[in-house]
Please model this.
Amino acid sequence: MTSEVTVRWLGTNAWEVTGNGATVLVDPYVSRTYTGATVPGEFDPDTPITVDEGEVDKYVTAADSILITHAHFDHIADVPYVAEKTGATVLGTETHLNLLRAMDTPDAQLAQVGGGELYQFDGYTVEVFRSSHGVSGDHKTLLFPGTRPGAVPRRPERIKDLVEGGSLAYLVTFGETSLFFNGLPSFHEREVVGVQPTVLFMQGPNPNYPDYVERMLAATGYPPHIVPTHWDDYEKPLDEPAVDLFGAAALGELVAAASPDSEWVLLDHLESHTFGA
Model:
């Protein structure tokens, strides 16, 4: 079994991970529907959920597993189409999966997790961790909060219908190479301590979380490689260079100061990098 793993950034927190003949997708969202979310004063929570199947077909060709970190539109809106197209197993919380069921995702492909699971797949393992979504403002407000347990809800029609639904992080391991995906500006520190991944995927600093970057690096053992994620203007075209809207440059400076021996791997849209070679 090889430890060589190639990652490709599909913008936002969407990652394609390939190794040992397998493909894992994290939050595969590429439709990049315009909602105004990245323009001050223009965000429209009533924007209809749309899937650009042409864009999905262009950038997503295969998957064995799909890992959902949370259920906001820029993370799961494309998943029903991707799951049906690829036949992949989809991991997520009860809420994530209920929302996906409501959007006609094949039920047989859905695997409910909540944190603590360690699953063996063909050529790789996936370990699941509880996490927390970032908040904003003086009152620590969470965008589209809520859960959808129990019965499958009505079909989500607008982006505000895709509630957060609990947040997860994942450790994906191919042989000796492990990748920790924490696509949120927060984490459950006591659960993460000792993970020590080869590669850490993390967001930039958030003023609501004191010393977030330094604490994350310490908890994960100052990983050999650090990759910023979810830093672009995710409503700009994917085939154009990424615009640093959410702090990749600031994160890079903090990483250089706190973990100078770590390799900083900044990928642009659709760029790839191989670890463990």
